[in-house]
Amino acid sequence: MSGAEGQERRKNARCAVAEELLASYSELVTESLTLHEMQFQSVVSGNADSGQYQRLIDQVNSRKENTKTAYIQHLRNHRCSSDWMLLDERKSAPKANAADETAPRKAGSNSDPPLNR
Question: Does the pTM of the predicted model rise above 0.70?
């Protein structure tokens, strides 16, 4: 491995805590998707108890959001990966002007969506 490759690997390496948080987040995303699939299959099969999954989905989503927040906060504080720089860039990126998005457009301009007839 060249010196540049080693530096790049170290720059993108995460500490054990960050790796653990990211692994937990990944597991919770998978669990959430699995529960959604089970709920969908229950609804499709006409099961009257398909609503039972919503409580479980809510619990998993809450844990997932808490884990994501902890991971992001860890990266910002510990800076154990170059990923924290992306988080800071997003935070400081200029926001789109809402007035620009709602301003009327000229008819026939290239930005107009096609008409469905």
Answer: no
